[in-house]
């Protein structure tokens, strides 16, 4: 089993369906299911989708066979032919019989495009007008009605190379996402070789893009995304909010400077390693007491150190120049933003109409606010006149309510006092009756009339005291005078001994 086939069977979810055994599903996919287009359209579409998705993922993983003897693999295009059929061959079902129909359907739906047409077309792949349809789509239609012979009619897969649109869009979006974080013009300008290496880092590839993939992705970014300008040596991304500009002489200078700095960094690293190696060689010669070898190694070390010093100085100067260019590029961005801000402010000020118009507007606003306040005051005064209240009448009514409340409280107090006096009379009469009834039984101690009166008076004083406490709670201001009067009356009633 080839690596491609193993990947498809392990990663292709549509190659396995829960309602169909795996063997039956694979048998259907490897059969000549072209007749199902008219007899079973849903089954035909499911098989086409399964193969197309599997081939797309396999290409993205770099598993589609390349040219004979080539170790590189294209990620963005699919090479069709007998090599692809052999790579998909299995022991049980042989080669897929309808793989040519899969390619034709993908072309019809514009999910795959012949590579030559993709690279030479002046129109974006997102333009759906009939005028932008390439000649191959018309040819496919003619093959469908039998006017020409093609892949679908014969069932064979012909040799060709087709751009996989889904993979191109995926990698293009990743590149734009990475480059959008670079605000400096220097960082957005690449040589072709540098761009090839940077893209490999962006999409986590173990090797650089092939020449075919590089041409495809640059064409897509320039024509379909309108994001880059390029020539045979330089690829330049436009900045945020900038219009796409052509390659300028400054861009060539930037790329040359970046390449020279990269070369010097490599040279300095190499010379540093050589100096260390010569130093170790001289040390070993000294330990071996080989004076001639030690002198030769030291002489070479000195020459290498001299080259390293010159290269380091040159590198330092170039890096300083590069830093100044970066600073100038940043200043250009700042000036561009300032110019845009100036235009915006000028436009806004023109809409405002100057300080005089602002003063007029402010004066008019103050006048209108004053009018609003006047209207509010007038409405408030009118309301006060309509609902004017006689304060003296309110005072008289309040006094009458207070007096009425006081009279009611006095009447309640008098009624309470009357009830208490009645209770006292009842208690006094009861006690007097009890004393008289017990007189016959207490002949030896016959009480006199004075003692009876005294007992009654004591009980009366106790009742009056209780009445006085109750009265105090109702009429506290009358308590003192009533108490004094009661005390005086009792004092007169009780004869002195």
In short:
The protein is 69% helix and 4% strand. With 497 residues, the protein is mainly alpha-helical.
Describe this protein's structure.
With 497 residues, the protein is mostly helical. The protein is built from 18 helices and 6 strands. Strands 1-3-2 form a 3-stranded antiparallel sheet, sandwiched between helices. A 3-stranded antiparallel sheet has the order 4-6-5. Strand 5 (228-230) and strand 6 (234-237) form a beta hairpin.
What does the secondary structure layout of this molecule look like, with pairings?
Blueprint: H1 3-11, H2 22-30, H3 36-39, H4 41-60, E1 77-80, H5 82-87, H6 99-108, E2 112-114, H7 115-120, H8 135-144, H9 151-154, E3 160-164, H10 165-179, E4 189-191, H11 192-202, H12 211-224, E5 228-230, E6 234-237, H13 249-287, H14 291-352, H15 354-386, H16 391-437, H17 449-474, H18 476-493
Antiparallel strand pairs: 1-3, 2-3, 4-6, 5-6
């Amino acid at each position: 089993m080839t690596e491609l086939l193993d990947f498809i069977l392990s990663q292709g979810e549509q190659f396995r369906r829960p309602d169909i055994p795996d063997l039956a599903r694979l048998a259907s996919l490897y059969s000549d299911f072209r007749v199902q287009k008219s007899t079973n359209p849903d089954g035909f579409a499911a098989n086409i989708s399964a193969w197309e998705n599997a081939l797309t993922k396999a290409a993205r993983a770099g598993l589609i066979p390349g040219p004979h003897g080539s170790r590189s693999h294209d990620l963005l295009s699919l090479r069709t032919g007998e090599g692809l059929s052999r790579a998909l061959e299995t022991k049980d079902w042989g080669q897929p019989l309808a793989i040519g129909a899969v390619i034709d359907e993908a072309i019809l739906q514009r999910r795959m495009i012949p590579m030559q047409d993709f690279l030479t077309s002046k129109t974006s792949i997102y333009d759906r007008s009939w005028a932008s349809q390439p000649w191959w789509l018309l040819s496919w239609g003619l093959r469908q009605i039998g006017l020409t012979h093609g892949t679908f009619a014969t069932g064979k897969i012909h040799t060709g190379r087709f751009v996989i649109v889904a993979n191109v869009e995926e990698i293009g979006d990743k590149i734009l996402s990475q480059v959008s974080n670079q605000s400096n013009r220097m960082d957005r300008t690449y040589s072709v070789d540098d761009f090839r290496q940077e893209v490999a880092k962006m999409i986590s590839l173990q090797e650089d893009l092939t020449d075919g993939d590089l041409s495809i992705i640059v064409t897509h970014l320039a024509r379909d995304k309108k994001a880059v300008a390029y020539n045979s040596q330089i690829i330049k991304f436009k900045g945020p909010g900038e219009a796409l500009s052509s390659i300028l002489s400054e861009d060539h200078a930037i790329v040359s400077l970046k390449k020279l700095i990269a070369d010097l960094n490599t040279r300095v690293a190499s010379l540093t390693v050589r100096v260390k190696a010569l130093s170790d060689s001289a040390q070993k010669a000294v330990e071996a007491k080989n004076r001639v070898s030690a002198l030769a190694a030291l002489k070479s070390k000195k020459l290498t150190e001299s080259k390293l010093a010159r290269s380091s100085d040159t590198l330092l100067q170039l890096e300083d120049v590069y830093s100044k260019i970066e600073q100038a590029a940043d200043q250009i961005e700042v000036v561009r933003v300032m110019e845009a801000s100036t235009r915006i402010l000028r436009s806004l000020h023109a809409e405002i109409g100057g300080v005089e118009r602002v003063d007029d507007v402010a004066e008019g606003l103050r006048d209108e606010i004053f009018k609003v306040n006047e209207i509010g005051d007038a409405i408030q005064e009118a309301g006060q006149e309509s609902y004017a209240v006689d304060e003296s009448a309110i005072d008289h009514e309040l006094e009458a309510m207070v007096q009425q409340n006081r009279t009611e409280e006095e009447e309640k107090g008098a009624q309470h006092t009357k009830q208490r006096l009645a209770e006292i009379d009842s208690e006094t009469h009861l006690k007097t009756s009890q004393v008289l009834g017990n007189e016959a039984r207490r002949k030896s101690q016959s009480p006199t009339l004075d003692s009876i009166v005294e007992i009654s008076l004591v009980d009366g004083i106790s009742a009056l005291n209780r009445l006085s406490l109750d009265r105090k709670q109702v009429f506290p201001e009358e308590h003192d005078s009533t108490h004094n009067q009661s005390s005086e009356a009792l004092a007169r009633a009780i004869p002195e001994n």
